[in-house]
Design a protein that fits this description.
The protein has 273 residues and is of the alpha/beta class. Helices cover 31% and strands 24% of the residues. It has a single domain, classed as 3-Layer(aba) Sandwich (Rossmann fold), CATH 3.40.50.
Length: 273
């Protein structure tokens, strides 16, 4: 445990000494959503591989670097490339970036992801604001020896996603004619996609979307008292009665097409934070 605390401090000290100072907002970029980086006036870019104790991103469509700069007049730190349980990381590693950004000083966390639509009235290419979630990953990022050194391990999950930030995002969507659904996200381990039976189960559980990320990060944010919001790009429609073979290239393409809407939401939100 001392080890964990010490490692985290070494990571934070390294980044501060490399010019990442006082970011206000932390952003985690999901699958096919890397273009937000083009909107940032970048002051510092550090590969994960150069950061002490930082996990390495392995998924080909996650780039693996920490970016610091200015967006909408605020200092932001962006994780371009995230970590998943399915890559063989443990939940401490999956959420290490969140604890790091918090240690650097962020007071708001924004998360994006690509997800499958379980709610059949939601279509691919649509955006969904997370209002609640189901943790179906079979573990918790707060379940380790000494976790209470980092905050209350009995984190209250009544409001995992900030109602205040969500309200702002809904207003921004309306004023920009962006359709923004609101719903519940189920997080699974993956990396295989779901069977028809699993999609039926998720429908019964009233999930609106399913993905393989986000929930561990949000649980950690709740432990450390960090307000957060998350938006999914719905990249495929998961109808168990009419399931098509999955095409990862198409998923990435759909995410890319929806990306400008996500960028508008995040840029305008940051102005208002």
């Amino acid at each position: 445990m001392i080890m964990k605390k010490q490692q985290l401090q070494e990571t934070i000290d390294f980044l501060k000494s490399n010019g990442i100072t006082n970011p206000q907002i932390g952003i985690v970029l999901g699958t096919g959503l890397g273009k937000l980086v083009d909107e940032i006036s970048i002051e510092k870019e550090i590969q994960y591989s150069e950061i002490p104790h930082f996990p390495q991103a392995t998924v080909e469509f996650h780039s693996g670097k920490l970016i610091y700069g200015e967006l909408s007049g605020k200092k932001v730190v962006v994780m371009s490339g995230r970590f998943h349980l399915y890559e063989g990381y443990n939940l401490w590693e999956v959420t290490y970036g969140i604890r790091t950004m918090h240690g650097l000083g962020i007071s708001t966390l924004l998360i994006s992801n690509a997800a499958g639509a379980i709610n059949l009235s939601y279509k691919k290419g649509d955006l969904m604001l997370l209002e609640d979630h189901l943790n179906l990953q079979g573990g918790s990022p707060l379940a380790f020896k000494g976790a209470n050194e980092f905050g209350n391990i009995f984190a209250d999950m009544l409001e995992p996603y900030s109602k205040k930030i969500n309200k702002k995002l809904k207003e921004i969507a309306t004023s920009n004619d962006i359709q923004l659904h609101e719903g519940m996200y189920a997080s699974v381990v993956g990396p295989q996609l779901e069977t028809r039976a699993e999609y039926r189960m998720l429908q019964i559980l009233e999930a609106d979307a399913v993905g393989m990320s986000t929930v561990p990060e949000v649980i950690v944010a709740k432990q450390i008292g960090l307000p957060c919001a998350a938006v999914s790009v719905l990249t495929d429609e998961c109808d168990p009665k009419n399931l098509q073979p999955v095409n990862i290239a198409e998923i990435i393409e759909v995410a890319g097409k929806a990306e400008p809407k996500m960028i508008t939401l995040f840029k305008e939100l940051i102005l208002k934070l």
